[in-house]
Each structure stands twice: as structure tokens, then as C-alpha cells.
């Protein structure tokens, strides 16, 4: 599963789009710096140089703001790679995850958003949607691999893609050591090998 670039990249749009962009950039900065518990709408309005009333009217709560930030990140996510090989497609996915999670701001931001999802229902639902969108985007590489005969028919594409990023997020949250491209390559190779061995192939009921 790929992880998107930092939110707030310049995009065309009117005043409403510019306000959203400024507020979400400020929210991302605040989350990365101080975590979800310190996220305050009045402070975000000040940081973004936007009227406090506008921020409260549009977002209403810290949970809703974090949810919109995740939606924005999904909107800006890069499309999947198509190299013609499952192993190299998954390696590109894993390296993109590592590149993002190795970035100081982005790693802190994702930790804050994951923490927010544990204590706020809006943030939790938004995080689930975010990962569902990103996994579906990359699931195409597994479907293509099945068409080419690289993996068994019926291989669950979402399970394969999730298996690539799972050890990388585990390392981010539990080991504290810097992630490297070697970590990415191992995660991708393990997921590809498991998929080719039929680990995630759906089995038809045989009555046994």
C-alpha cells in the first residue's frame, strides 16, 4: 500500500479550496508536532490565517478535521506502479511506504493519526477508509499478476497488498529504528513469495 505525499500540495481551486488547503496543512503540521490530543480548532485557524468561525463551521471538531486530512491525503496519493511483474510492483509499493515513513514529518504525522484513530471514532473511520482506498489502488497489481499466471487464480489482492505494508508499519510503531529500502525489499519479496505459493488463494468449499 502506498503512502501519500505530505498534505497541502498546491492544487487549483477557488477560495473554498484554498481555505481547506491552508487549514489541512496547518492541521498536519500541528499533528506532526504535538499529536492529536493537542489539536485545537482555534489554534489551527490562527496557524492557517483563517477565521475561527469558518473553521468551526466547516469542521466542528478535531476528529472531523483529522478525518478530512486523511481524505485529502488519499486524494493526493500517487497511482500504483505497473512494471509488468508482481515482485517489482510490490517493491515499488514498499519503497514508497518506506520513503514516506522515513520522512521525519510524515512519520510523526502517521503516528499521530493512528493514535487519533484509537480514541476518536471519526478519525478511526477515516483511517479505515484511507487504507481501503490505498489498498484498492494497489490491488490491481495482484489482479494483473493473476491474469499473467504469476499467482493462483482467486488470490485475494487486498490481503497481498496489506501484507507488504504491515511489517513496515510494525517497525515504525514498535521498533523505533529507521526504515530502509532493504526493509521494503524484504517485505515485498515475502509478500510476493507467499502470494505465489497460494497463501491468499481463496479455496472453494469441498465439503470436507
From TrEMBL:
Coiled coil: none annotated. Residues 40-59 bind DNA. Residues 17-77 form the HTH tetR-type domain. One of its GO terms (molecular function) is transcription cis-regulatory region binding. Transmembrane segments: none annotated. It holds the Pfam family TetR_N. Keywords: DNA-binding, Transcription, Transcription regulation. It comes from the Bacteria. PANTHER family: HTH-TYPE TRANSCRIPTIONAL REGULATOR RUTR, TETR-FAMILY TRANSCRIPTIONAL REGULATOR. This is Transcriptional regulator, TetR family.
Amino acid at each position: 500500500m502506498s503512502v501519500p505525499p505530505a498534505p497541502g500540495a498546491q492544487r487549483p481551486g477557488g477560495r473554498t479550496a484554498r481555505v481547506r488547503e491552508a487549514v489541512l496543512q496547518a492541521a498536519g503540521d500541528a499533528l506532526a508536532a504535538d499529536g492529536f490530543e493537542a489539536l485545537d480548532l482555534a489554534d489551527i485557524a490562527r496557524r492557517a490565517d483563517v477565521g475561527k468561525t469558518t473553521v468551526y463551521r466547516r469542521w466542528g471538531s478535531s476528529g472531523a478535521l483529522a478525518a478530512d486530512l486523511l481524505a485529502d491525503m488519499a486524494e493526493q496519493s500517487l497511482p500504483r506502479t505497473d512494471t509488468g511483474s508482481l515482485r517489482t510492483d510490490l517493491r515499488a509499493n514498499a519503497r514508497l511506504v518506506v520513503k514516506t515513513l522515513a520522512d521525519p514529518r510524515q512519520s510523526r504525522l502517521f503516528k499521530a493519526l493512528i493514535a487519533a484513530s484509537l480514541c476518536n471514532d471519526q478519525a478511526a473511520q477515516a483511517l479505515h477508509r484511507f487504507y481501503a482506498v490505498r489498498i484498492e489502488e494497489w490491488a490491481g497489481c495482484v489482479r494483473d499478476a493473476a491474469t499473467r499466471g504469476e499467482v493462483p487464480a482467486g488470490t485475494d489482492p487486498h490481503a497481498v497488498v496489506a501484507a507488504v505494508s504491515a511489517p513496515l508499519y510494525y517497525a515504525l510503531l514498535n521498533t523505533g529504528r529507521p526504515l530502509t529500502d532493504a526493509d521494503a525489499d524484504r517485505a515485498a519479496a515475502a509478500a510476493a513469495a507467499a502470494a505465489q505459493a497460494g497463501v491468499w488463494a481463496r479455496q472453494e468449499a469441498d465439503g470436507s
